[in-house]
Design a protein that fits this description.
Elements lengths: L1 H23 L11 H17 L5 E6 L4 E6 L7 H15 L26 E6 L2 E9 L4 H22 L1
Antiparallel strand pairs: 1-2, 1-4, 3-4
Helix pairs in contact: 2-4
């Protein structure tokens, strides 16, 4: 009888320890995402900012996984601006930094991975410590100007995103 009681007591303690672990550890993770309307607003604001400078661009807003949500191209911007803007945005979201900060890594094995462009022109979308995506621009004479337009796209919505936080 004592062996049975000891075994039951031991199993009870074991189940309590697993139970408290399960209660401490969430079974799911909630992920915030940009709405399609927000992504479109960002893209349009970037196009408008570059148009004010007389520059025709392509812009891509990606989600936190690097998947495009909004893509725009000025009518006369070269078609190549779209894949470059996408690859810049992808790099920004994967490394969670503006692509201007990745230039020193561009000529490394990671910088030659297909689909990753590590030159200036994209910024991550960070709100309240959460990475929501990135916006990438291509078509300006310099990467710095591309990044300025990408930042203008982000600036157009950042206050509203932070207020929602």
């Amino acid at each position: 009888m004592k062996k049975t009681e000891s075994l039951l007591l031991g199993l009870g303690c074991l189940s309590l320890s697993f139970g408290s672990f399960a209660e401490d550890e969430a079974m799911t993770v909630q992920v915030k995402r940009l709405s399609m309307a927000t992504a479109q607003s960002m893209a349009q604001a970037a196009v408008t900012a570059c148009e004010k400078e007389g520059i025709q661009i392509g812009v891509t807003v990606v989600d936190r996984n690097g998947i495009p949500q909004a893509v725009l191209r000025n009518t006369v911007a070269p078609p190549i601006t779209l894949p470059i803007s996408k690859d810049k945005a992808y790099a920004a979201v994967m490394f969670n930094v503006p692509t201007s900060q990745l230039a020193d890594r561009a000529n490394t094995p990671i910088g030659r991975v297909p689909g990753v462009v590590m030159s200036a022109g994209a910024v991550p979308v960070l709100v309240g410590g959460s990475l929501l995506g990135a916006i990438g621009v291509s078509g300006a004479p310099t990467g710095e100007t591309d990044e300025m337009c990408a930042q203008a796209g982000l600036d157009a919505v950042i206050d509203d995103l932070e207020m929602e936080e």
